[in-house]
Structure formats: structure tokens, C-alpha cells
Amino acid sequence: MSSIAAAPSAAAAGGPSSYISSGSDDRAPTPTSLQVQSTAAFSPFKSASAVGTSIRRPPSSRPATSMSMRSNRPTTAASATTSQPASGICAVIETRGIGREVGIAVLDQDTGRVTLCQLADTQTYIKTIQHLSLTGVAVLLAPGNAQNAAAGSALLGERFSQATQGQNSVLLQCIEEAFGVGPTHIHRRHWNEKEGAAYIQRLIAAEQPAPAPVNDSEGASTTTSSIKDQSSSGKNTGLGSVSGRVTGTAALTAVSSKYYALSAACALFRYLESADDSSFRNNSLFIEYRSPEGVLFIGSETVRSLELLENNLNKKSKQCLFGLMNFCATPMAERLLRMNLLQPLTDRNTIESRHDAVEEMVHSEERYASVTQSLKPLAQHKIDGDKLISQVCMAERSQLRSPAQTETKIANILSLRTFVRSLRPAKHALDGCSSGLLRAVRMFLDSDELDEIAMAIESCINNDMLEGKVKLGKSGLAARNARLLVLCSTLQQDVDDSLQSNRSALLDVARETYKENIKDIYDLAAELSETHQLPLTLKYAASGFVLDLKTEHAPNQRDLPRTFINVVKGRTKTYTMSTIELKKRNQKMLDSMNEVLLLSDQTIEELRQDVTDRVGALFKASEAIAILDMLASFAHLVTVQNCVRPELTNTLAISNGRHPVLARFPTQKLIGNDVYASEGQSFTLINGPNMSGKSTYLQQIALLVIMASVGSFVPAQYASFPTYDAILTCECRSDNLAQQLSSFAAEMRATSFILSAATPRSLVLIDELGRATSTSEGFGFSYAVAEHLIGSGTTTFWATHLTDLNVVLGQHFNVCSKTFQVDVAKRGQQVSMDFRHRIVEGPGANHHLGLQLARLAGVPKDVCDTAEKLAAKLREAEERQRAKSKASAVVQRRKIILQLDALLRQTLESSRLPAKDLREFLIRLQDEATDELYETYSEADTRSTRANEEEKDGGEGKEREEEEKMETESG
């Protein structure tokens, strides 16, 4: 416990001491004391369906229709972001009071990895939900007093089965709403930070000995204190799936002061020990502490609207960002890619190290081919390294061993052998690489402990059986025979041990007995065929051998000899049957097979213990293979699309950028567009009619930012990205019936979160805010929200039909207007529109394009004509009023000067142009600014003159009307 600092007092942690009992003694945890209702057998490595008793779906108010393109149904236990089965057993605890500090401990049932986190959240707990969405929530554990006073103390320590949402805390309500999983309440005495620290110290996988550091040409230093990159002075290696993640012994130090994370860990392990017959071997779990800092925040609604993991129309379609980028050969890499898309990186060194690695594989076809070839065995056998390692190292609390369990263990050992044997080719594929990240991957694959594991496995494997020197066939029986005969009688290093030698003799006898029983069954089949003159064949089934006979040899089932029993006519014109003698010999064969398996169990257990002693090296090798596979997938993407390596600067600049998913699955010619945002141009208004491409453009910006942040190249001619801390979107296109929210209420909720979470380092994308209410209210609300974002300096792209926003917001120097080009042609009464899908500078000419679309849609001509006249009159009145103001010209001049200042500052900070080119660039900037300033003076004079003339003409016309009126009255 020396490495775990003493837990802070309850007051310092933000809650009273009675909230979490620290315990009065240091006795070992008693699993039977855990008060949790569990009616079904539970395993931490089962699928989500195995823990269905913990899932309670809230009632849905949605009518049974399929009205919308994007589903608004409540999310299920699968995930808050995808339809994949949830795999996380999650323990959550929060502080009482104002500061919403949340401790989280999650066990991924698929991989056996444990993730700890402690974060300060908002009132909607959006960060907690995002963190839990990485695995989904299959089981939700909460303190027994995580209920409000209405629930009463009678429910403490019991499963919260039939309670309403009003009886849960806000945190549990938010999680249940997001994942559709009700809480399992555990008594508060099991949320103990000291015991949580003891669990972690006992179970965390031991670190492998540190190899010599690798120094790249830029002075980066790589050590093994963590699989995350490790030198603050140089480039990170990027092995961590996300930045801010700490593993191994470093996780002990990182979590030592995290009071609530340790408490959640204690409850999680207590639950696992109580609800399952399995336990964990010491130093066998991959435990990591993941800091909420260092990752780009993307909310679950944003994940769905951007279609990061799934297509909203077809869940099985690959037309989403994950489907586009997923060329991974291993499940570990697919899982890593999915986690990176949900939580992209923000550490610039880590991102650039990935870009370096991808670039090296793109430029070296030989290295890329070697890497992909080395991963083929893992892909062919569908080996999930993380899951396999956890299954091999899983301890069993029950002393009873079943033959089926032993057979599964043998299959796992054979899969582990394939995994370990594939590491050497992957290591050799990286020989001589220059990228710091690839060199770090090679370093983790070049481990003495991995060689020792490989030798231990080979010492108890009969290679003749695996390499085909002994012919077993390709049937199910052949596979079972391989598992029975593949183990050597003893481990080679223990040959001299008398106990082992005795065990070996018994195992050899059992195997010979098994072979003789198999031979007896084949002899019986031959004897029956000869006796009854029937071409009988043996077929192996789960219950043993059966006899097959074509129906053509006995058209009538009654013609079969009475020796045959259990005759069943199959669909393939065959009879399947048995005999009493065959059943007896089957039973003998099964008994001898079970004896072989039970005698093999001791050898397997010794081998599993050897593997567990070195499991830290295996976990790191698995993660190294995952990152290598993912980088190879990124390199393959470059060959599929015309991608460019992005630069990391303080400016968002994309030249001829393309929507990545549309570029991969084009349905028509794709038009590239430019994107620009900087300190001097942080707010961009995007105009254009419906179907011009505004929403696609916003989605394209977000997807390209995410691709660059995970380490991939992007489809563009040139791309430069800053490191954002969040991507916040508002795209509420319909009512949310599941949450009983109108479209306007949904807009307000999304906007409220954006205003509370946005920082100058955030990227905000807003699509037509305020359209769900009246024009005046929508305009006023949009203006107020825009003013807030402009003042905060948040990078914002705002698509809107409210063209007046271009005028009222144009006075800010960091606001610019752009529009999607549309060509309108009139031929008599016919109107045609050509959507160019290309963005251009300026708000664009007002051609009343919405009314033109109405004409094309078949709205009656007289209605469209009347609407167009009224719209023209309103626009003319606005222009006259605007022309009278000389202040607009002053504002325009000030804006030009401020934008020039921002551009000069940016040039000073990031320009790499030669002196001659830089001089020409500055002269061009000066000329352009001078011309723009001159235009403001000439335009102001022109507008003023025109306004005076119109006012004069209007006054003279009014005087004539009054004179005519007086003459008429006098007459």
C-alpha cells in the first residue's frame, strides 16, 4: 500500500463521511456479504444477454410509426451511440452537494479490461455518458443511498427493480435515459476507497522489465513506464488509445488521490466476486486510469448526427465514418478505432507521431505489405488478443474441473500460440523503421517475456499434430482429436520431476484408451455394413458417433433391420440411426475422452500460471498490434481516397476538402470546398437555399477534424487543423417524441449545453437555429446566441436562412458570410435552378431562391407571384433604411483593418515562406486592404446619394398628391 496515498477526508472530497464508509478494519473483503439481488449465474466475460436481469427499459412515449429518417427511439442497453451489444459492467458514484464529481469504474466483458475515471461534470452529466458510451452499459451499479429520500431506507442494499425515475438521482436518471439500463443498488459499505486501492494493487498486471529507451531523430525518448507515449520533451509514441490514459504501475499513482474512482473500483470488484463463481488471479488484469483531459469531447447526439459509428438509415451499412476507416484485420484494432472516433486525441505530439507512422507506411509499400501480411494469421483465426488474454488468465474459484472447461482452455492455449507466433513477423516487418511510433511498437513486440511465453507454450504442444504430420482429417472429430492429442504429456522443463512423470504415464494410457475406443467404433461400423450388406458411414455428432445411410438403399424405413434404433429421416435423403452396441462404445469413448481432458488440466493450469506471471508483456503486445493494425488501416485509406497529411497549427484551413463518406461511396460528382477559420475569422455564417449543401458542409468539417485528430490523413488538397477540445453541434430537425420534446425544446436544450460548454478551443456547428418558432423570436434568439459565441471567440460555423443575420452580425470583425452558389435561369414562365454545391465568399444575391423552389415544387403561380412581390417590397424597405446609415461604412472599414491585423499576426506566427515570397504576399495583402477600404468610401457616397434622391423623389411625389387632393376638394 505504499504506492497508494491515503484517501482524503470525506469533507475534502466533497461529501460527508457517512456517504462512503471507510471501514473500521482491514479485513479481507467477504464476497458473501455483498447484498445484491442476483437470480441468474453471472460471468464478467459473458455477453450482455447473460445479464439481462439488470436491464430495465423505461417506457417509451413514441407511437408505433416509422415517420422519420433519423430514429428518435430511446436508446437500449446496446449503447448510447450504436446498436452494438453493451459490454460494460459500470459502477458510478457521485459526491453530494454542488460540485458534481463522479467516480467511474468499468469492466469490459469482451476484453476483461478495467477502466477508472474521475471527472467533474455538468448538470446533465454529458461527460459521464460519453465515457460510458465507450463500452455501453450492460450492468449499472450504484450506491444504495444514491436514491432520494422518497425511496426510503428499506431499499438500501437491494436491487432497485420497480422504482420510478423520480426515485433515482439525476445521475442515474441520465444514464438510464441514455442506455435504457436500470441501476443495481449495492450497500454503501462496499464503496470503500481503501479496499478499492487494495484490489487494484493486487490485481493490476505487473510491468515488464523496461528495455533500453528509443531515441528518435527529434530527441523523443520512449520508455515503458506506460504504454502511452512518454517523453514530454519530444514526440509521444501514441501507443495509448487515447491521450491522458495511464496504465500499469503508473495507474496506481494516478488514481491514488481519486477518492470516488477508488470507491467505484471497490464496488465493482465486490460485485464481480459475489455474482460469479470465477475470480481473478493476482496481477492478471489490465487496469488503466483514463483522465477526462487530453481527449476531444463529442456528445452522444453529435455522434449520431455525424454518423460516426453507424448510418442513421441502415445500421448495417458501411456508409459512416467507422465503416469508411475500418480496414482493420483484428478485433483489437476495430475496438481501438471505435474508441478513438468517440474520443479523438488532443495531444499534438501524439497525433503527429501517428501521422509520421502513416506517412512512412504510405511511402514504403514494402513495409506496408509486410505489416499486413504479418496480421493475416490473426485475421484468419479471428483472434481477439485482449479477450483471449483475459480468458487464459481467468482464475476459477471452484475446485471442480469439467472436461468441457478443460477443452475450452486447450482451445484458448492454441489461439494464444497463434497470437504469440504472429508477433515475431510483425516485429520483423518494422525492422529499420524511422517513425518513433513504429519503433515503439517494435520495442514492445521485442520482449524477452514474450519469447519465454512462446517457449512455454511450445514445450507442451505436439507440433507434429498441429503441422499436419499426423493426419486427422477436417471433420469436427478431427478438431476434437487435435485438442486431445496436441498437448505433450508434460512440460519439458519438468521431465525429471517424479510426480510429473507419473502424471505423464497416466495421460499416455488414457490417450491410448481413447484411440482404441475410436478404433472399436470404426470396426463396429464396418462389421454392421458387412453383416447387413449396407453402405453405412460414420458421422460424428455432439453426442457421439451415429450411422448414416442413403435412402436409395432402403426406400421404406420398415425395410431396415431391427438392429438399428433411433432412425430419423433427414432432409438430405439419408437415414441417421444408431445401435445399442454403438451407444455403449460411444459412452466408453466419451469416458476416455473426459479422462484425457481431466489429466491434461494440470498441465494447462501450470501453463496458464506461467502466462499470468508475464501477462503484462502480453497486454502491451496486444495493444501494440492494435495500434499497428489501425495505422495500417489508415495507410490503406490513403490508397482508396486521394488523401493528404494534415498539418497541426492554430488555424483551420482546408483547400478542396471533400466529405469523406461521400467521397468513398459517391452517388454523383463530388465537389470539393474550402474551409477557413482563425482568430480573425472565428464566426462563419453559411447561406443558401435548401438542398444547396449547407448541412453536408457542416458535417464535412467535423468529420475531417475527427479524422485528423485520430491520426489519419484527410481527403483534401491541403489541410491544417488546430487541436479542439470539443465538437458541439445543434441539429434538431424534428420533435423528439421519446423524450417528449418538441423540436424547439430540443433546440433549446442543445443550445443551452453549447453555451455552457463552449470554450475558445471548441468547434461549434449550428444548423438553422430558431426555425421551430416565429420569425421574430427565432431571429432574436439566434442573434443573442451568435453574439455570445462571437464574444467568446469560439470557432463557429452557422448555417441559416435568416439572411438578416449577415447584416446585424457583420459589424464584428471576426464574422464573415459565405453562401452556396446556385444558378437560376428563367425562360418565360419556366424557372430552373442549378445547385453548384460550391461555397463562395459573401452572403450572395437575394434571388428569393426559396420561392423559386416553391415554383418548381408546383405551388400555384399566383401564390408565388404575390409572395415574391411582398418579399421584394420588404427587402427594398430594408435596403433604404440601411442606406441612410453612414455607420455601416465605418463598421466595414474597422472590420477590414481588424481582419488585416489578425492575418498579419497569423503570418508572423506560422509563416514558412522564403523572404522574397513573404514580401510579395505582404504587398498583395496591402493592396487588397487598400482596395477594400476605397470601396467602402465610394459605396457609402453612392448609397447616400441614392437615398437622398429617393427621399427627394418621394417628398416631391407626396407634395403633388397633396396638391391634387386639395384641388379635388375645392372643386
From TrEMBL:
**Which portions of the chain have biased composition (kind: Acidic residues)?**
961-971
Tell me which residues make up the DNA mismatch repair proteins mutS family domain: 681-872
Instruction: Give an example GO molecular function.
Output: mismatched DNA binding
Q: Which SUPFAM superfamilies does the UniProt record give?
A: DNA repair protein MutS, domain III (SSF48334), P-loop containing nucleoside triphosphate hydrolases (SSF52540)
Ranges of Low complexity composition bias in the record: 1-23, 74-83
Regions of biased composition (Basic and acidic residues) lie at 940-960
**InterPro entries xref list:** DNA_mismatch_repair_MutS_C, DNA_mismatch_repair_MutS_core, DNA_mismatch_repair_MutS_sf, MutS, MutS_con_dom_sf, P-loop_NTPase
Subunit description: Heterodimer consisting of MSH2-MSH3 (MutS beta). Forms a ternary complex with MutL alpha (MLH1-PMS1).
Name recorded for this polypeptide: DNA mismatch repair protein MSH3
Q: Which organism is it from?
A: Tilletia indica
Instruction: State the organism's lineage.
Output: Eukaryota, Fungi, Dikarya, Basidiomycota, Ustilaginomycotina
